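Recall that a protein's primary structure is simply its ordered list of amino acids. Everything else, from secondary elements to tertiary packing, is in principle encoded there. The following example makes that idea concrete.
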Amino acid sequence: MKRVLIVDDELAVASIFDTALKNAGYEVKIATSGKGGLDLAKAEKFDLILLDQMIGDLSGNEVLKTLKQDQTTKATPVAMLTNFGHDTMVKEALYIGAVDYILKYQISIDDLIKKVKTILGDAS
């Protein structure tokens, strides 16, 4: 079973994605802070990290940069999943190494599952 880490400080939103991903057959963990997400990503192996841009203690791009510089997490695909679509933020995230930049308010749960499946090579 493929594993997904959601890093988002809005637990209500993260729970919706958590339920949808579990229903699609993924094992999911949630971290509600940037530091918590980094610690979990380094301690356990994930197939994908869905990372919010605004997570209180660190920006999503700071977390992404740290993940991409760490030997244990640099190969893990990271998709930004956020409400913040400022051009500079998007470009920076993609430049650092995000595989996708998904705007929460523009995506349905079904489309999110399709994107996750595509990123993980599970699309049929």
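The chain is about 45% helix and 20% strand. The CA atoms of residues 99 and 119 lie 8 Å apart.
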